[in-house]
Amino acid sequence: MEKYMIKEGKRLRLGYTTGSCAAAAAKAAAVLLLTGRAPDTISLRTPGGVLLDLAVEEARAGKDWAECAVKKDAGDDPDVTNGTPIVARVSRWDGSGVDIDGGQGVGRVTAPGLDQPVGAAAINSVPRQMIRACVEEVQALADHRGGLRVVISAPEGEALAKRTFNPRLGIQGGISILGTTGIVEPMSEKALVDTIAVELRQRREQGAAYALLTPGNYGADFIREGLGLNPDRAVQVSNFIGDGVDLCRQLGFRGALLVGHVGKLVKLAGGMLNTHSKYGDCRMEILAAHAASCGLRPEEAERVLSCVSCDGALDVLEEAGLAESTLERVTDRAALHLAGRAGEDLETGMILFSKTRGVLGSTPNAERLLAQIRRS
Q: Which parts of 143-282 fold into alpha helices (H)?
């Protein structure tokens, strides 16, 4: 696919989703079944309006069935499914309309709160609409009035799924067939936030009233080793802390506890609810400013500002006897910004930690929120 976008000054090639592959493969298989001719390429207009001409592979047919594959192309996105074939088998059946299911390597939904109900193949709503529309288009052109069954499979899907969020989400046995626009934007922030939304929605529909949030693996390790909880109980929000809080409020959670490393969460004290370094790195400035309010001398503040890590800055503050008071101020200010984002309907709390020092700060309600999470 020779379409590009500019992101952070880089020219990145777009790709197309597993949903687009499944729809194109189903369309090609329907053509083969109803006309007896296997197309070399198949045209598909995505929900986003992009016209794709995709190569058709592995075309074969038997009595009352035909099968074709289209390889996933993720463009410049580091997608684990890049290059994997998505296969569609289309067969005649006695029912009416177009029936869609998943086969080998396509996961099954085993937990509520996802796009599809428990027991269904993990083929999301938009790809299902695309598959149905493509097959119905071929039926109309071929004047075929009978029913057709479409089974989507991904021969490499079961192995690939282990490198995705699917096991955490309760999707077993394979990958998901995804995509809302049909196009993959490299390293899309929207895709990451959508994944966070899926996890939180699932927790809410399973009855959880309180959410446990953490930016990433450091937080997950601390949740297991420092809090004695299964880290799978937490939703990893990466840098999107503000978006995670927004989603908790929208989904009707009563409370959310954020557990994170000081190197990430200290930025909240400066009002940064997206902590990615491209939006700024104010860690040392925040620590130095709050330490100065606690009595840090100018020459010591200069040492803090020259540090490259929060642990290094805390060494300076401990020498000055101001680490505890500074961290208390930082925690209070970060909690203030977190609560401001949450509004009145969502109670928020926070636990700040260091890998070497353990808990550095926590909001007064953190233990109570943690107890609610344990009970749920």
A: 157-161, 166-169, 189-205, 217-225, 241-250, 262-265
